[in-house]
Design brief:
The structure is a single chain. With about 375 residues, the protein is α/β, with parallel strands linked by helices. The chain folds into two domains: about 190 residues, Rossmann fold (3-Layer(aba) Sandwich); about 170 residues, 3-Layer(aba) Sandwich (Rossmann fold). About 45% of the residues lie in helices and about 15% in strands. The chain is built from 15 helices and 13 strands. A seven-stranded parallel beta sheet has the order 3-2-1-4-5-6-7, with helices on both faces. Helix 8 links the parallel strand 8 and strand 9. Helix 11 crosses helix 14. The longest helix has 19 residues. The model has no long low-confidence stretch (mean pLDDT about 95). Bound molecules: ligand GMT. Ligand GMT binds next to helix 1 and helix 4.
């Protein structure tokens, strides 16, 4: 198939999911055309069957708000025409599904009167936060209803979309995935561990875009409690608006030297592959891709019981769950686990086994292929 994929190219789970999906599909012989305003963050150099088409947004003095969604629609239709795309797959409803809807209309009304179906994948904040804003809700609902196929990354997100948006079309749940060959434990962790933890301290890790929904200060609070009991280091991967408040909290607590801000990283699996515990104390996660990436690397996730997270982490088996804001309980789970090496490693292996059996790309990508076929047949 020839598939156009649009996503946010910046640091965030939906862009990661879209890019990894495109790379996997390309390896399976499909022709993949990424269409966005910048190369997606995890797109690594030229690769067979992968193409990238940049969307140029003209800036005129009249435009206080340059109309990206229109430029994107135009580029989608152009690329579809030039490369004979079979369908568009957009990740994150706002504004991508509206642009795809316009592109589909342009193609249908164009000289060749051609069908260009589009699939919308809902990721979370496009529904739970942004989509609920009154200025976006009606058009988000409309573009979801108009999609030729809709997928959601968890049952939680599907149910919430149906309930809050009152959309009637079928929403297929296709879970996020991880490449289990790339994301795995580092078999020789010694040198890298020594770089971050020279005195053989334990390593906790957090990976996100540091937005308020991630509750980065809770990560620091949990780490502070753990560090008082067990010598440890905290690796913070990513960047975003809450970085300075978290940094300042670490300074106030006198633990700044043990909190390592690594910034945005391309090869996150290298850092995950040496860590012991992953902290994800988010206010809300529709899935929690970072936890899954950690699990594939045998890193035990300690997270909040929110949104779609319980669909990914089974409490007490492949990780631990606590209520949002309950930093005491999350710290207690970490201290107990770090104090028992055998249990820590056994649970890490159990977490990987879950990632492998339920969320490996080799299992999930065929579900997208099958869904595309149904969309092309008109039977989705
Ligand atoms: O988390 C965000 O800030 C936005 C969004 C994104 O674009 O990365 O994340 C959502 O999509 C991820 C990938 O499907 C999910 O793993 C996250 O759980 C989801 N975030 C929320 O629901 C808050």
């Amino acid at each position: 198939m020839k598939i156009g994929i649009t996503c946010y190219p910046t640091y965030g789970g939906s862009g990661v999911v879209a890019t990894e999906l495109g790379l996997e599909l390309a390896q399976r012989g499909h022709d993949i055309h990424f269409i966005s305003y910048a190369p997606p963050i995890r797109l690594r150099g030229p690769q067979p069957n992968i193409h990238y088409h940049e969307v140029e947004v003209s800036r005129y003095p009249l435009f206080d708000y340059p109309p990206y969604d229109l430029a994107l629609a135009t580029r989608m239709a152009e690329v579809a025409q030039l490369y004979d795309l079979d369908l568009l797959h957009v990740h994150y409803a706002i504004p991508h599904s509206v642009s795809a809807l316009l592109a589909r209309q342009m193609m249908a009304d164009g000289p060749r009167g051609r069908r260009l179906p589009f699939v919308t994948t809902l990721h979370g904040t496009d529904i739970t936060l942004v989509g609920l804003d009154r200025s976006y809700l009606p058009i988000t609902r409309y573009s979801i209803q108009q999609s030729d196929g809709v997928t959601a990354i968890s049952n939680y997100l599907r149910d919430r979309t149906q309930r809050v948006f009152d959309v009637k079309n079928h929403i297929e749940v296709i879970y996020n995935s991880v490449n289990c060959d790339v994301y795995c434990r580092n078999p020789e962790p010694g040198a890298l561990r020594a770089e971050y933890a020279p005195n053989n301290e334990r390593i906790l890790v957090h990976l996100s875009n540091f937005r308020p929904v991630k509750r980065l200060t809770d990560v620091v609070e949990i780490f502070d409690r753990v560090r008082k009991q067990i010598p440890s280091k905290l690796l913070l991967i990513g960047d975003g608006p809450d970085r300075s408040v978290a940094e300042w909290l670490a300074v106030q607590k006198g633990i700044h030297a043990d909190v390592l801000f690594l910034g945005k990283q391309d090869q996150v699996q290298e850092k995950l592959g040496i860590a012991d515990i992953l902290l994800m104390p988010s206010e809300l996660e529709s899935f929690g891709l970072a936890a899954l990436e950690g699990m594939a690397c045998e890193v035990v996730p300690i997270a909040t019981r929110t949104g779609g997270v319980p669909e990914v982490i089974e409490h007490g088996k492949s990780g631990y769950l606590a209520d949002v804001g309950d930093v005491e309980t999350m710290a207690r789970f970490a201290i107990e686990l770090l104090g028992d090496e055998d249990r820590l490693r056994a649970m890490g292996k159990q977490a990987r086994a879950v990632a492998q059996s339920r969320f490996c790309s080799s299992k999930i990508v065929p579900q997208y292929e099958e869904f595309y076929r149904r969309v092309l047949d008109g039977s989705s």
